[in-house]
Amino acid sequence: MGSVNRERNPDSIIVYFSAALVIAAGVGACLLRGFFFTEEMYLFLTLWFVMCSAVLLYLYIGVSNRRSSLGGASGVSRALKIMLAAPLIVLSLYLIHSLREPLSAQGTMNEILRWGLYASFAFLVCFCALNRVGRQLIIAAWTILGMFLSISALLAVCGVLELPFAVAYSNSPEVSITGARLAGVMEYPNAFGAVMAVFLLERLFAVAAYYERPQKIVRMSPAGGCGVGRESEKTGIEYTGLGYGSECVEEERGSEKVSVNVGVERREAGSTAAALLRLLPLFPYAAALLLSESRGAWLTAACACTAVLLWKRQLIAPLLTAGAAPVVAAALLYRQLARAGLAVEPLPGLLWLAGLWAGAWLAGLWLCRSQRSAAGSARAAMLALAAAGWTAAGTAVLLHVRERITGPSTTVSARGLFYRDAWRLAVEAPWLGHGGETWRSSYLAAQSRPYVGSQVHSGYLDILLNLGFVGLAAILLMLLAAGWLLAKRSLRLLPPFLVIVLHSAVDFDWSYGLIWLLLFWLPALALSEYEQKHQSVNTRFTSISLFTTHFGPVTPPPTQSTSASPQATHLESATSPKLAHPYPRRLFITAACSLYLMLSVLSLHAAQGERYYRQAVQTVDSSVKIDMLQQSLTWNPRSPRTAVELSRLLTNEKGVRILQQSLLYSPRNARLSWEMAGRWMYSDDPGAALYWIHRSIRLDKYNNAKWVKGIEGMLMMGRKKLAEGNRVEAINCFASGNELLRQYRVLADYEAGKGEQHNDRKFQMTEQADDLSRRLRGLASRF
Question: How far apart are CA 673 and CA 685, in angstroms?
């Protein structure tokens, strides 16, 4: 027996280690603003990739002595493989772009690091989901993550927790009716609202499914025969003989068919403490969702609920009763805090929050239990009361924000501009795209109006810009596979998944790493729930099978004790053939380990470059600043902002050399081109200066300062040439300045004719430009 425990211990370590990495990713997302800024993630990613390499190294060491236990090729198994393979395909496409000439080498590197994280997280969380201990850890981590995100945001509103940007303020009624919106640790209300909608629907459908009326269910008999399944609070699933209303069917599992039974579900009510724990998160999730004032999150949550409820109508009644009290309490809190502009005193705010939470908690428990046990007119009365609560809450909220919903919205029309300009940019490289962070690095050149928007506000368009139709097809296939897996294994988790899929189409949710973690976490929860409810003889090999399929084989638990049944022994021998050729698996593991070590080194270099850059920005001494920036550029030569800062501190020749080297990594960077133009405007070469002025203006045509500075630069060079006696070149400089002024005036007049809407950058003819026009006319009259 001691030898058995010693054999099991290494695999237990891998499970705990994988779960710890999953938890670490959730904690990192909370502490690093939802993984939005890649620059903040470099150090975390360095440690992450090292840990993933350690897992792969463990697999490599024992590959020759281990077995493969892939059980069949069922539809769910294929969907899982597709879902896990798609991130690797996306990562490979970004690696291909890094070998070519992307628009932004820095952005492509950032996306490589991000997708290395997403791919490994997807494997780890699904691996944990198929292990008994691992699934308990990731389920608990999911709940803790959601509670932390919601409670921290609500405490920040009450002034208890200091989060500098937890509340987003705006003077525009089209952005916020109250002038303040809850953004939480993510610092963006729309993305925060989408995340809260995900957690709210997950918990709401979980409670509704638990309090659902008795129905037919499928239960596996441990002995292989048929029996009526009954879920017990203490022992999980109990099996009895075939009873009234039951029927024996066969379920296909891989290449085998296993006898199961369909019976009538009889759930026990359970203890009050357990019921309260199920209902605990509903109020903070609902309150945080409403306080985010995200119309897109509200709409997508409603659409996701409607889609699944139309599919499974028996959940309508328990869902109404489960959510009525929390939603009413959340609406009351929303109206109270909205009147105060999300600024309340700590003690009254905490008392109001705690009182509503407790009331919603107890009222929700009473409604759920009453609805479940009542019948006839009593049950109808409970449902009517719950429906009235939902109606009252919805009316109170919608009346408060009706102007944002019914009135014209500049944000919606602005998104239309983003999408149109992004599509024009996408067709320039339709198949493989332009590389990482395409829109952020080139939107100034692509925009058709002077708006401010470094995010394209559509995850699908962002992928299309970066990776073309090939990358978008991989993402869509992954989403379809994940959705199919959820529909097959746990339908209640489909609504939160649909929220991510729908809301990402109209906002930049996918720029947050946290959203991708949740997207992969949901199928893992579905697998956990299914495995927990449908235990079979070969279930204990499943988690090893999944990891073996993709990373290489892992040692399965010992085959059988001396008392094992012959059927189980035969099943093991059928599903666990010995590896005849371990070398291809060794090669795959070696390649994966090498990749993650490379990513670790890459993220370490980027982290060092970022550290030196921040130190340089905070330094006053110019010599020390130059040294810091040079070290930063040595560690990470792809960073355009470091090159710009360093070039400003160097002589003209050295500065130009630094800018030229940086332009090799970011050929269409507007800042680099403008710095080059500024350098040449103080040289003796008007032709080069005019070239870089035109190039930088093409990359940022709605910038008043660049137009004025370019015209002024040509005027200055013309006067310099005139003073030197070079009249011909002086006249050419004045003519070039006049032409720039004419183009500027035409573009400004064209924009003025369109009105002020979407003119966020205030692009217009300035007084300084008018003064330059008078000076140029005077010079033109002389020559």
Answer: 16
